[in-house]
User: Fold this.
Amino acid sequence: MVYSARSIALLLAVSIAGVTALFLSLINSVAPSALLVASLVSFSVSYLLTYVVLEFLIFRGINKIDKMMGKLMKKELKGIAKEKTTSLNPFEKLNQEIATFALLQQKEIDELKKLEAFRKEFIADVSHELKTPIFAAQGFVHTLIDGAVNDKNVRTKFLKKAAKSLDGLDSLVQDLLTLSQIETGDIKMKFVQTDLVKLCEEVIDQFEEKAEQKKIALSLKPARQSKVYVLADELRISQVMTNLISNAIKYTPEGGSVSVSFDVGKKNVTTFVTDTGEGIPSQHLHRIFERFYRVDKSRSREKGGTGLGLAIVKHILEGHNSKAEVHSEEGKGSEFSFKLSRAKEDED
Ligand SMILES: Nc1ncnc2c1ncn2[C@@H]1O[C@H](COP(=O)(O)OP(=O)(O)O)[C@@H](O)[C@H]1O
Ligand SMILES: [Mg+2]
Assistant:
């Protein structure tokens, strides 16, 4: 059945003419010619009237709404599966479209509510994280002002402690800035052919002293002279390696070892940062890439951690269409890894 103004008007007009003729034929005195005329007149009048009312008042309006809904949905639902209705009934079609549209609006509202909750939580977290080092530094400075400044031994100790808190504050603000720059897209990733071995070598060199202090064997496998080319933002991947190696050293007790190694495949290169440290309990593993999430808050802070290192790693790797993987066993050690696309090599 085709739902158009014409067909409905035709159907109605035929029925009205039929009923009129039937009624008139019951009256004996009505001549057949009059019957015909009456049927014709009632047919044409009712056809015209129904057609005009349906076409101009209802169908055109519905079609306009339908078209507008179609446009709205196309704009709003890009990428989202649309339920295409096969019904020819414009009312049913419209109904379904409105329902789908409403559903999508609801989804969007839910998404916005989630974002809002996330924003509130983030502000609360940042304020808390800022408060801790400020509060500590403030305490030491006030104690000094209140008289401790005259005691030579205490003076240096307190000043050092205040300086340590301020250093922590500085790292926190630096990490927050980095995160926000990556998120707002202020810093676009610049993908260039990068020698991953050389990059890791340079990062490792920066940590040599720290590793030595903790008697941790820090090594790069394979031999230093080999080259592994990837397509990456050099500076950002350096930051990823810095954060991963710094964590590995931080969370590995004295005498342990930290190593960087590669698995070179046809299309990708996987980089591993492996340590023999304290490991991460399995119930925490899925959360460590969240901002400010630490297995042990106070211990991380004491070691100069901001809780943002792995969140930054996650963001940078997302910018490289990659993600960090982690395997860890409590008490035995952890292994962080990520994949990067290989780049064509100019030289051997
Ligand atoms: N190599 C590792 N070994 C053990 N625990 C780790 C390691 N790397 C990260 N973690 C855990 O994940 C948490 C989040 O890491 P990160 O985001 O770098 O913050 P933090 O500033 O605390 O280092 C750390 O607090 C620590 O509990
Ligand atoms: Mg860290």
The beta strands are 192-195, 217-220, 229-232, 257-264, 268-275, 325-329, 333-341. The chain has three domains: 5-76, 118-184, 192-341. The first helix runs from residue 5 to 26. The mean pLDDT is 88.
